[in-house]
Design goal:
alpha/beta; Rossmann fold; 2 domains; 4-stranded parallel beta sheet; globular; GlmS/FrlB_SIS; GlmS/AgaS_SIS; repeat; SIS domain-containing protein; SIS_dom_sf
Length: 304
Amino acid sequence: MTDPIPTPSAERAEHMARELASQPEMWERILHLDAARAGLPAPGRRVAVVGCGTSWFMAQSYAVAREDAGGGVTDAFAASEFFADREYDDVILLSRSGTTTEVLELADRLKGRVSTIGIVGDASSPLVTEVATPILLPFADEQSVVQTRFATTALALMLASVGVDLEPAIADARTAIAEELPKGLVGAEQYTFLGRGWTVGLAHEAALKMREASQSWTESYPSMEYRHGPISIAAPGRVTWQFGEAPEGLSEQVAATGAWFEEGALHPLAELVRAQRVALERARAKGLDPDSPRSLTRSVILEP
């Protein structure tokens, strides 16, 4: 269960591998983007943050972190499920491509009614001109369909805007990229990711990465909800992976099932990088292309 496997080989040229490994550098750049951070909502403003897929999970993490920091009411929505009649001072639209149908439709509905902020990877995308305040992160854009660095860089920007210190995350991310991964962690039958507070969104994102890149059986829950049913999935050969501090007694309860309890020792953002690496290694082991997952495209663009 503890034999290591090598770090991703330099001979492999997948976009996901390169983009994944660049995340500490991306987050460091955030430290110098004062104007971008200043474009995000000031404390006291009522805020909604929306996205699709990975961006929705990053929105969830930011919403909790902003409220925890005393920034004010912050709600996260999937773009298709936004409460259009609820009053907000600002709506943040998060999109790597800036072409996602649901995000563009929402931007159009909100135009002239509420202050809109777009965090976008592709500087030439239509979303840039649809929002009042575009925040562009083209250096973090990606070629792989499976998102890694854009999502975490956008979240790093949003966390920094509410006073979160990114230095521990940057240092731990370098460790997450360089360390050897245990074979048992990579070769498990099933994974359940858990989080508390702002890391619940990270747990959901980790599970999504595993599904997208390696077609793995994964689930995700708030940590305290795990014992309300989902723990019945735990068994030998399966992994329960905690992001951040685990609830008291949970590790012992999981161990009693025979499952592997992975209590993330790194900063939760860096722990997400570890999960991305596991997803990549599982894709390689299955002979899958992690840059072009089955049934997925870089952006969901719906026909009118």
